[in-house]
Amino acid sequence: MKSKEKYSVDIFRLKPGTYSYEFGIDADLFQQFEGSPVTNASGKVFLTLTKQESLIRAEMDFKVGLPLVCDRSLREFTYDMNEAHEVLFKFGDEEMEMDDDVYIITRNTQRIDFSGFIYEFIILAVPMKKVHPDLEDESEEEIIYTSETEHTEDNDSDETDPRWEMLKKLKKN
């Protein structure tokens, strides 16, 4: 529970304006979530909160290094995640999720826990195809296997099957 608190921001006492926060990313974040495909990362998330009368805009700038394993060579490498995401919190009567990046919160909400948002954005940044940077320049040409028997069949295709000859004769009549 302690690690969740380090990603929480007290919004109740904030006056309208812009506020900056910085969160360190480490293994503690990923241990909160069972079955996480990522178990460790290092870096920082820079959070800029802009509080207005009707909403709070949270802009998150990620500078995180994710340890991944290459799908081709099985070598470990660090994937640099440099992304920005925005989440809106609108004030309303009851708390609910309107969209992926739009949430309704009450005016009495004390704190916003950003650990779930940070975790989700990091997990979504993991590429589907994990290729070590040393292997990225290699071309991905398709290799087609051929054998001599296939070539001999192609050469024999000049001779027409006698059944086709009979069908051609029937067609002419």
TrEMBL record:
It comes from the Bacteria. Residues 137-164 are annotated as: Disordered. InterPro entries: YceD. Pfam families: YceD. Residues 148-164 have a biased composition (Basic and acidic residues). This is DUF177 domain-containing protein. It comes from Fulvivirga sedimenti. The lineage of its organism: Bacteria, Pseudomonadati, Bacteroidota, Cytophagia, Cytophagales.
